Amino acid sequence: MLTPLDDTIAAISTPLGKGAIGIVRLSGPQALAIAESVFRPKRGALRRRKRQLCYGWAVDPESGELIDEVLAVFMPAPCTFTRQDVVEIHGHGGPYVLQRILAACLRSGARMARPGEMTLRAFVNGRIDLAQAEAIRDLVEARGEAARRQALAQLEGRLSARVRACRQRLLQCLAEVEASLDFPEDVELDQGRTIEQLGAALQELQALLRSAESGILTREGVRVAIVGRPNVGKSSLLNALLGEERAIVTPVPGTTRDTIEECVNISGVTFVLTDTAGLTEEPADLAETIGVERARAALARCHVALAVFDASEPLREQDAAVAQEVARAPRMLAVLNKCDLPVVTENPPLDSCPVIRVSAKTGAGIDALREALVQAAFSTDAEIGQEAAITSERQKMAVERALKSLAEGLELLRAGLPLDVVALCLQQTCQALGEITGETATEDILELVFSSFCLGK
Ligand SMILES: Nc1nc2c(ncn2[C@@H]2O[C@H](COP(=O)(O)OP(=O)(O)OP(=O)(O)O)[C@@H](O)[C@H]2O)c(=O)[nH]1
Ligand SMILES: [Mg+2]
């Protein structure tokens, strides 16, 4: 994956659809030369008008045929995204036109960029660290305000600064431990102070790990499974939360077969709502059987289970079965629906979980349900879109490893065990923390991170 940086790469950096403009981006030492063979300015020369848009045409370098009327800009290294020479050609945003411009660049000596390769160059050339590179991807993928805010803070380096400060403190301790190992006569380790320092670092890493749950929820979106026995109003509830008639609603039990997934923004957080087939022990046919399996799969994957019950009817055995299945979810909310009708059931068959009374039909209680969803996912508002939170499984696993070896090292030091084993633990901790910002990231890690980027980024 870590190809040499001395070739020039090209990609269409805007989405492949129809739009007012589309951009082909070149990065590398030959970017200007290649662009000059593809771009014919109306007047002047691209190389003399640095960082200024030049008007002209994209042409086929071999036949001279005009491809498109474009604007081009040359941005010389090192003040560019990749820290290399970059040229952008802004053409009309049609997929075919852009592909012709890209093909012209490739014929003139550029290589097709892999997904994330521009950002990889920015990382390798030291413009951003690995957490910031991830933040760029997350910013592109943000679906709501909280995710955007969190990604931007990470791009500004808030998470990196927090991780670096902790790693720096640990590296200092490691240096002192190693010095006392290498020069036992001259250097004596201040054991009390080292224990204090390591204890403080441990607390900081624990706090960092605590931020992971909400950080990841903010970035990925909160998955909510709407479950219940047939006909309690699950699909009506989905429609009420979305504010549109998305799912089919009928008085016939077993209307919904397949799962239906839709996103909705609440308080800036993205919730991914899944409407499911009614949970029943007696499916009418094969499609309903598969529907029930899918409902259970959605329940197993969700962050929050929304258990729906019909308040206008007495509870049934099936409701109790639903409650039992839902109890395994990490977080749950009970919804008593159809409260516009005379209420027969006052309480759901679920203990110690928030109960929201609504009418999907009239919309009563839906705002309270929205609020309850946010509270179920995040225990405080401060957890939403935090400034220096762990935001991916990759980062979380690195912190977990760092914590484990740090706790071991601290315990060994307290127990008065040989310092070389303590040093080993601290090395592992620093190694794991360095993976977050990329200082100690292996090629495998980089491959994993950058392969999740979109093309041209
Ligand atoms: N009065 C009243 N009727 C409702 C309410 N919510 C849903 N209904 C009615 O209840 C029936 C079933 O609603 P659905 O939303 O299809 O229920 P469901 O749980 O998705 O049903 P399945 O997909 O069959 O499992 C429909 O006739 C709805 O109009 C409500 O809040 N009040
Ligand atoms: Mg339904």
Describe this structure in words.
With about 450 residues, the chain is α/β, with parallel strands linked by helices. It has three domains: about 10-130, 2-Layer Sandwich (Gyrase A, domain 2), CATH 3.30.1360.120; about 135-215 and about 390-440, tRNA modification GTPase MnmE domain 2 (Four Helix Bundle (Hemerythrin (Met), subunit A)), CATH 1.20.120.430; about 220-385, Rossmann fold (3-Layer(aba) Sandwich). The chain is built from 14 helices and 13 strands. It has helices at about 30-40, 95-105, 115-125, 130-140, 145-155, 160-180, 190-220, 235-240, 285-300, 315-325, 365-375, 395-415, 420-435, 445-450; strands at about 10, 20-25, 40, 55-60, 65-75, 85-95, 110, 220-225, 260-265, 270-275, 305-310, 330-335, 355. The strands form two sheets. A seven-stranded mixed sheet has the order 3-4-5-6-2-1-7. Strands 9-10-8-11-12-13 form a six-stranded mixed sheet, with helices on both faces. Helix 4 (about 130-140) packs antiparallel against helix 5 and helix 12 (about 395-415) packs antiparallel against helix 13 (about 420-435). It is flat and about 80 Å long. Bound molecules: guanosine-5'-triphosphate and magnesium ion (MG). Guanosine-5'-triphosphate (GTP) binds near residues 278, 338 and 341. Guanosine-5'-triphosphate (GTP) binds near residues 233, 234 and 337.
